[in-house]
Amino acid sequence: MSNAPAPGGKVGLRPQDRLATLVIAVLVMAVAVAAIIVAGDFPPTMLETDVGPARFPIIFAVALLVLCAILVFNTLRAPAAPPDDPAQAEPKASYGTVAIGIVATAACLYAMEFVGYAIATPIYLFGLMWLMGRRNVIANAAIAAVLTALIYAAFAVALSVPLPVGSLFE
Amino acid sequence: MYELDMLLHGAQALFNQPMALLLALFGVTLGIIIGALPGLTATMGVAILLPFTFGMDPLSGLLMISGVFFGGIYGGSVTAILLKIPGTPAAAATAIDGFELTKKGQAGIALGTATFSSFLGGTASVFVLIFLAPVLARFALEFSASESFALAVFGLSIIASISGVSVIKGLISGFLGLLLATVGLDPMGGFPRYTGGYTELFNVPFIPVMIGLFAAAEAFKSLEDPQVRAGMAAALDRIIPPWHMFRRQLGNIARSSGLGIIIGMIPGAGADIAAFVAYNEAKRFSKTPENYGKGELGAVAACESGANGCTGGALLTMLTLGIPGDAVTAVMLGALTLQGLQPGPLLFKDHADLVFTLFAGMLVCYVMMLVVGLGSLRFMGRILQMPKSVLTPCILALCIVGTYAINNSLFDIWIMLAAGVVGYFMQKWDFPASPVVLALIMGPMAEANFRRALSLSGGSYDFLYTRPITAVLLTIAILTLMLPLLRRLWAQRSPGGPTTINPAAGSSRMGTPE
Questions:
Q1: Residues in Cβ contact with A21 at an 8 Å cutoff, skipping those fewer than 6 apart
Q2: Nearest CA in chain B to A148
Q3: A112 contacts in B (CB within 8 Å)?
Q4: A155 vs B505: CB contact, 8 Å cut-off?
Q5: Which pLDDT score, from 0 to 100, does residue B371 have?
Q6: Which chain A residues contact residue B186 at CB under 8 A?
Q7: Does residue B233 or residue B49 have the better pLDDT?
Q8: What angle do CA B138, B142, B145 make, to 5 degrees?
Q9: Residue from B179, B394, B403 whose CB has the most chain A CBs within 10 Å, to mutate
Q10: Interface residue B282 vs chain A (CB under 8 A)
Q11: Residue A133: which of B182, B389, B455 has the nearest Cβ?
Q12: What is the residue-averaged pLDDT of chain A?
């Protein structure tokens, strides 16, 4: 994905992949720096023979910083990939659909806190099926209801694992 | 031979108790279902059934629980292979190559191989339990904190071999996982680290992160391509692997089962660690290591035989020493005690008839697992015939419910969602998710045992090289970590080596070894 082999055996980075790799590396470095700063506030250990709660997080964060620096260096040094052949180009990814799917999942979780599993899940399933191109309203509604019931039967009925009831119905 | 005679007597006694056999079958079937469902683990299955065993005779109760244990470990592979949802932590290793095989249209062979490998690994471990228990129990006692630390480091060194196309990106994922693993209570002093005041974060939310990184990320990915959204997934091909194909895996299965048995005996190490270690060793011994991570049948065979080999190993120390090898056997220890049986050397003397009948029953459980597993695969494979536009929402709903089931916590589901989003971006830009999961399993074990070992040695680091098992494991770990780098250097120096190296990937992508 990020560094597709180009014709002729050469490999290189597309501009968008180079940018994405750099952004990820910088974000991870930011997380590592934050981890080191927070670890500075951890209390020292009372045991003389212990290294304390901060030692391991700091070691891991420093290793992350070094590795990310290597990745940034390698990414900047990598040759550019030749332009894509339109005939062999991959179908364009629909990031909008992914974003809607993620937002729908977050909305389902938020709704589940209030209305519970039994109401939030079929609506969520129906919405996702619609998002993925299924336009038959009746069939989608029936499938959503059946799937919700099957999952409920497997977890709540057969295995006695409680599912969220929702604060409105508690 | 005493053990063989007792086993035959035990088998005779077992077949005179049809109710015990029926309950074992029930346990195995329930275990497979529990293992296949995300969020529900073998530990949870055993814990759920434990109260029902109170009123049963010891053999029936213990066999039912053993059935859930064995079925639960195996069941995780089914959804890992078909949907990239690891039903159990051990199945996270199986998912790496299992799901790639499904994408290649070889789901049936992958599932069949997983079933046979689980059966062989598990059966071998029960035989070891029967015949070598007293000898191996002494070896298990050699494992103290320093050896457990070295084992965890050895496990972590596997990151290099499961990194996919880029070792640097794999190591970044691994260290990110290690940093994540420090979230929660400090293992020595109990100080909360990076919890932000949330009590839910006092323990690392390992399973929600795993479900998010594997299953939710994959589901989000299938939302992005219009052709995938509209398409049908592949149908299941033949299930029983051809003999010429499976025969090549027998050595791999034997080695992985052995590793699983040894790891199972070590307190604190379970099927998840065994699966990853077996994966690494299978890759190391393979003639085609470059195929690992791209859909290699040997990887599935290794992970499953390793994970199921763990079952006998974990039971071995539990029955002979009263030390549970993992969480499931800790619950089983409770079941034994409730039945009035005291695990330890005397168990084999005072209750020899029951113990060997139980062993015979365990072997029967594995035969049942093979039969039920193979019988249900065609039915389970129908999942693949569902349109993606129905399957993907169903996977996401299962991720939500499965995550909630772990602690009855909505907070965990938010963690799962966050991990899913992160996992989606990681997948897009070739940052492998498996090292994160491996680090979450091994990280806490490494830190806790290192600090314990340091305290036990009075603050001296001598334990790193004075204890033979520790020194050997640490040496192997360093070699494992350095191997990809050495291979890459060797390939560059040798005539006809790679002409182009992708610096960002940290490796060649043109089929040359790293």
A1: A2, A13, A71, A75, B429, B504
A2: B397
A3: 400, 410, 413
A4: no
A5: 94
A6: 42, 53
A7: B49
A8: 145
A9: B179
A10: no
A11: B389
A12: 86
CA distances from B2 to A41, B9, B65, B317, B341 (A): 62, 11, 27, 20, 22
**Chain A residues close to B33, C-beta within 8 Å:** 154, 158
Residue B21 pLDDT class (50, 70, 90 cuts): very high
Contacts of A43 in chain B (CB under 8 A): 189, 191
Alpha-carbon torsion, ordered A11, A14, A20, A21, to 10 deg: 20
Question: How many angstroms separate the CA of residue A160 from the nearest CA in chain B?
Answer: 8
In B, which residues are within 8 Å of A71 by CB distance? 168-169, 172, 504, 506
Integer Cα distance of B201 and B186 in angstroms: 12
Instruction: Kindly state whether B453 is in contact with chain A, defined as any CB-CB distance less than 8 angstroms.
Output: no
Residue B229 pLDDT > 80, yes or no?
no
| Lowest mean per-residue pLDDT among A12-21, B100-109, B381-390, B459-468 | B381-390
A62 within 8 A of A36, measured Cβ to Cβ: yes
User: Rounded to an integer, what distance in angstroms lies between the CA atom of residue B372 and that of residue B75?
Assistant: 11
What residues have CB less than 8 Å from B493, skipping those under 6 apart?
Answer: none
Question: Model confidence over A70-110: pLDDT tens digits?
Answer: 999 999 988 887 776 666 666 667 888 999 999 999 999 99
Could you tell me which residues are beta bridge partners of residue B232?
Answer: B387
- At position B489, the amino acid (one-letter code) is L
How far apart (Å, rounded) are the C-alpha atoms in residues B157 and B153? 6
Per the listing, tokens 């346990």 go with B27
DSSP result, B187-202:
TTT--EES-TT-GGGG
pLDDT tens-place string over residues B321-353: 777 767 778 778 877 877 778 777 777 777 888
Query: What's the Cα-to-Cα distance from B61 to each of A131, B14, B113, B371, rounded to whole Å?
Result: 48, 13, 30, 21
Residue boundaries of the structural domains of chain B: 2-491
Q: Where are the domains of chain A?
A: 7-88, 95-158
Judged by a CB distance cut-off of 8 A, whether residue B175 touches chain A is: yes
Using CA atoms, how far apart are residues B34 and B71, in angstroms rounded to an integer?
8
The residue with tokens 């970044």 is B172
List all residues 6 or more positions away from A70 whose beta carbon is below 8 Å from its beta carbon: B168
Cα radius of gyration rounded to whole Å, chain B: 22
- Provide ipTM, 2 decimals: 0.90
Distance CA B263, CA B260 (A): 5
Closest CA to A79 of A134, A12, A21: A12
The arithmetic mean of pLDDT across residues B410-428, rounded, is: 93
